[in-house]
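Journal club side-thread
Mid-discussion, someone asked how the predicted structure for our own chain would compare to the paper's figures. Pasting it here so we can look after the session.
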Amino acid sequence: ASIPPVYKNIYGFNDFQIGLSYLTGGFGTVAGGYANGKLMDWNYKMTARQIGHTIDKVSGDDLNHFPIERARARGSWYILAIYLCALAGYGWAINYHAHVSIPLILQFVLAAICTAFQQTFNALLVDISRGARALPLLRGTSRAVHFRLLPWRSCSRWLTGWGEAGTLLC
């Protein structure tokens, strides 16, 4: 929602150039999805190796005895830190009228990381709810996820609260 006014008022883009500026987010989404798929596979293999679990590619793994939450959420704090830094950098670049390439690059990074987070935790929802694969995605959560991911939910509520407070103060 901020792209048209930012690029029109600050950088003097015309409508065609504003339309092209959306491509960075689109490419970021594609790149983030691809890279995160590889990262999720690697995290799964590393978690399996740490606990001495053999991966069964033919019939699939029994996730009842596998720490799937740890495998999926592994490294998420680092990705969240990068996302927050990129978001702050985007705000800084817009506020100080930095060269147009900086917000465009940061749009790419933000789209990639946002896609990675969504893909990771949607996969976790599906992994936890093996019997009804689409249902947790439709609901957005399930009882199993509610209890297993309670620390993540508390963190997201805390961050959302700070974000809302910062918005109200500005």
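Post-session note: Residues 10 and 97 are 7 Å apart (CA to CA).
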